[in-house]
Design brief:
Distance between the termini: 33 Å
Radius of gyration: 20 Å
Number of strands: 15
Shape: globular
Number of helices: 11
Low-confidence stretches: 1-58
Strand order of the largest sheet: 2-1-3-7-8-6-5-15-4
Number of domains: 2
Strand content: 15-25%
CATH architecture of the largest domain: 3-Layer(aba) Sandwich
CATH class of the largest domain: Alpha Beta
Order of helices and strands: EEEHEHEEHEEHEHHEEHHEHEHHEE
Largest sheet: 9 strands, mixed
Mean pLDDT: 85
Length: 387
């Protein structure tokens, strides 16, 4: 049976190690000691923020190079991961022996996500997809989170291991990569069976996070009320509305929240100028209350490492859900609004920090996949040196 070895570090950099039997065959290690308005805020992009990379030359990827085909195939499936406002805030850099994952902070949401918490979670989702794509091909990856404290944008390194092909346990989730959707409509009124629920909980736990279903009608109702309260606060903020509107884009743009091309100018105008918190909140409250399985994904800590773990846990649970015919809706307003997050935490037994609030269920209709940018736009190669 394959064993995943986690090597984490405490605040003093001391190694902590635990083995999880039955988990996929990779290892995760801690850090070494040593276009529209607000859619392009004045924030330092990933290349401008990198430190300690003297002698390394990054170039935009030539996707025709045969030596990169293995990595590109994995990245093409990694980018199918979900992200806030479909910003796709990731950048991959390919060297001869590894794929490095960076945060692309030029695609951040400074109003909705001022700490880049959701941005980092989104990148964690992409990392999970990368692992699944590797597993189904028999590739063995060694995963290192936050490889350098001096380069905060460098979120993970996935190193190829030269060993016989091993099909990790994640391989069974590969068919779910392209079938996963974010479902923004009401689900079918059909309960999620306990076996499926337990498998999603186990998937999140295997990645270092806890998925806690909200089974009590009282707790579900209180969580739904917090969603409505969050909508009212967010839609009442003109800066938040402008940021949202900036990411409303026609499908051909390849990112953002898809709106019809002809209606895009009007839709953005409405988003910027009309405070629709009451109506949107009422709708989302009903959707939350009607979701067959609402749940909170949480972590013990609340820093970049925890967010990366949360992202991998979220995506693992989503892929398991998809395999069982489920999709998910997101209700993150109570987590995004600072004053509401502690109130949501009080509703969840076991403590910890809520990272994602979502609902699972069976979709009534098929929805198209959200658009994605071409892989060549999110990939760069390292010509010399080593990150």
């Amino acid at each position: 049976m394959a064993v995943r070895v986690y090597r984490l570090s405490d605040e003093d950099g001391n190694g902590l190690k635990c083995d999880l039997s039955g988990c996929p065959s990779d290892s995760i290690r801690g850090p070494r000691k040593e276009e529209d308005e607000l859619s392009s805020p004045v924030r330092r992009g990933p290349i401008g923020r990198l430190k300690g990379n003297r002698g390394i030359r990054f170039t935009r990827m030539d996707t025709s190079k045969g030596r990169n085909e293995r990595a590109l195939a994995l990245i093409a499936e990694a980018v199918l991961a979900p992200s806030s406002h479909n910003t796709q805030p990731w950048l991959f850099r390919i060297s001869e022996s590894a794929i490095d994952l960076y945060a692309d902070r030029s695609r951040a949401l400074p109003i909705n996500d001022p700490d880049d918490r959701e941005l980092t979670i989104s990148c964690g989702c992409a990392l999970m997809n990368l692992r699944v794509a590797a597993a189904v091909r028999g590739e063995v990856l060694q995963i290192e989170l936050l490889p350098s404290r001096n380069v905060p944008d460098w979120l993970a390194r996935a190193s190829f291991c030269d060993q016989p092909r091993v099909f990790g346990s994640e391989a069974g989730l590969a068919d779910s990569l392209a079938r996963r959707r974010t479902y923004r409509k009401r689900f079918a009124a059909k309960a999620v069976d306990s076996t499926t629920r337990d498998r999603m909980v186990s998937a999140a736990k295997a990645e270092g996070a806890l998925l806690r279903p909200l089974l009590s009608e009282s707790v579900r109702g209180q969580a739904a009320s917090l969603v409505a309260a969050g909508d009212a606060i967010q839609w009442g903020d003109p800066d938040w509305r402008r940021e949202l509107a900036a990411w409303m884009r026609p499908r051909h743009r390849g990112d953002g929240l898809t709106v019809p091309a002809l209606a895009a100018p009007v839709t953005r105008w409405v988003g910027r100028h009309l405070a629709m918190g009451r109506s949107v909140g009422a709708k989302n409250r009903k959707r939350m209350e009607a979701a067959p399985l609402p749940a909170v994904l949480g972590t013990d800590g609340d820093g970049p490492r925890d967010w990366l773990l949360a992202g991998q846990a979220l995506q693992h649970a989503l892929l398991v859900a998809t395999w069982h015919g489920l999709q998910a809706s997101y209700f993150n307003q109570p987590i995004e609004v600072t004053d509401l997050r502690p109130r949501l935490a009080q509703l969840v037994e076991g403590g910890g920090f809520p990272q994602i609030l979502l609902g699972f269920g069976r979709p009534i209709e098929t929805v198209p996949a959200s658009p994605r940018r071409p892989v060549g736009e999110v990939v760069e190669s390292v010509e010399s040196g080593q990150c």
